[in-house]
Amino acid sequence: MRKSVFLGLAAAVMFGTSASADTLETVIKNDHVKCGVSTGLAGFSAADEKGDWQGIDVDVCRAVAAATLGDASKVKYTPLTAKERFTALQSGEIDILSRNTTWTLTRDASLGLNFAGVNYYDGQGFMVSDKLGVKSALELDGAAVCIQAGTTTELNLADYFKANNMEYKAVTYDTSDQTIKGFEAGRCDMLTSDQSQLYSLRIKLAKPDEAVVLPEVISKEPLGPVVRQGDDKWFNIVKWSLFAMVNAEEMGVTKANAKEMKDSKDPAIQRLMGGQGEKLGLSDDWSYNIVSQVGNYGESFEANVGSGSPLKIGRGLNALWSKGGLQYAPPIR
Amino acid sequence: MYVTDKILPAQPAPSDTKGPVVWLKENLFSSPLNILMTLFAVYLIYLLVPPAIQWAFIDADWFAATRDGCSREGACWAYIANRFGQTIYGFYPEAEQWRVNTAFLMLIVLCIPLFINSFPKKMWLGGFILIIFPFIAFFLIHGGSFGLVEVSTDKWGGLMLTLIISIIGITLALPLGIILALGRRSHMPIVKSVSVLFIEFWRGVPLITVLFMSSVMLPLFMPEGSDFDKLARAMIGIILFQSAYVAEVVRGGLQAIPKGQYEAAVAMGLTYWKSMFLVILPQALKLVIPGLVNTFIALFKDTTLVLIIGLFDLLGVVQNVLGADSKWLGFETEGYVYAAFVFWLFCFGMSRYSMALERKLHTGHKR
Question: Where in the cell is it found (chain B) (predicted)?
Fold first, then answer.
């Protein structure tokens, strides 16, 4: 009896906190956006020499800060482990969770959270040594595969090989660092992990050029920012901050030319650069601030994980829809 | 009969009982089995040590501006050197780091007199260090008043955070543990059962669970927006956890004191607290120094667990900050070797200090 009262109380407290107050108001009052990032993942969120956070996930937070406060640097980062991330958001410790989090039905529907979009389409891929001369994973029947134990990658791999009637020998390791050491030592022919990770693992090899990431992607891992359910205004702001970055890329507005583009004659660009903020409860230059301070989606991608970074991840699925990718943003009008 | 009134001068020992050759013979080659083991050990050393030295020193790169500057034949210490500051201070702003240095320097300077036997008024100095100094240190490091810029705890990290957590953990867990140990041996039923419950509860859960509770569960029960500091939450968990262990170590010491000591103290008319603090505890604590230091070394190493709740202690910085720098991927080994070396330095120092302390307090009870 007493136990149930306690549980009821706990539940009441939990739901009481998750149905939150006006996040935008809190953000303006604090004068910073509280952003949950990963404790350290190359290209996505990592602290640089000066202790400033950098990465594609970090740029989402910076964009929201630019949109709401007019200054992309007004972000307070909270590094979170995978286990803590949702509680931190539910309890109001952070305003946005931008921490390479996969959008799934369970998370979206049962945690009291909303996914505000996808800032990186990830998926499980394969890496092989170029000595094998393999062009596709389908040629790898009977291969030994280095894999991190206890992850969904392990299950996806089993499904994929079974579906294609192929055999494989799993060589399991505890951490991703060990998998790459195993791969380097020749314990396996192939290494499998999420593609974004494959690229950063590849750099860890003594000779990165001798390993190739195969084109096959065998699972869907859309990663995106998450907000609390129940505050639609804030949900919209985060969603449209991301859309503004994608739209800016589509229209060719960059960090460098944002100022000139403000005087553009193109009505679509004009709408992007001002005039629509009121509907979101923001100032009119919200998207101008995003583009001029953070840059467009393509710039953020290239600088953090793409050609401008050591990771050299190709755009692939993350190219604009007009260029064969999946990044597509509704129009700003 | 031959009688001499002179004492014969001491003769050197016979050559077959002294000297390095004899030592070798006796200790390393005394039996076939020992010969075999010695040869095996020498072979192992030959197998392991030269490559390790080759890797860590001879082939190592100490300075390099970028990742390509490291040859990868040996260790790349430039990887550590370039971000050495972060492994020590975490994200603490560079311009303010003098405050951390001052605080730790103050602590060291204040502690030196405690090691000098003839220094008067040690009690007062000790009291100052334990009661007043923490506030000074907090204001220095955290700031936010007296014209110092506030540096919130989420910027703390590196070795500094490791030391802060372990020093606070040790100094607060010890008194709490002593009280709990006394409580457990008390004849008052409530005091006793509360102490037993407390100790058994905290000893029964792993530290990792305590930390998860403090960072994942606790925030859910607090009113929203009440931003209870993550570090403070972890600290409280660590102190409570550690005090249970200290309590059991101290209880061991209390039980080793003969009953006559308790009776003698009572017979002298001492109150409970006086008899404890003047007669029993000084003897009991002295007995359990190895056990206490053991616990403290364990705590020092356990502080690395805070990285699972997203606090960046020394290991956390090495693993998550240095290890996630896309410009310097692939040097984890160097990072871990560096962290291990720093931890070893501190733990070794602690164990040496405890041995010195035992010798100093040695009053003839040792067998």
Answer: Cell inner membrane; Cell membrane
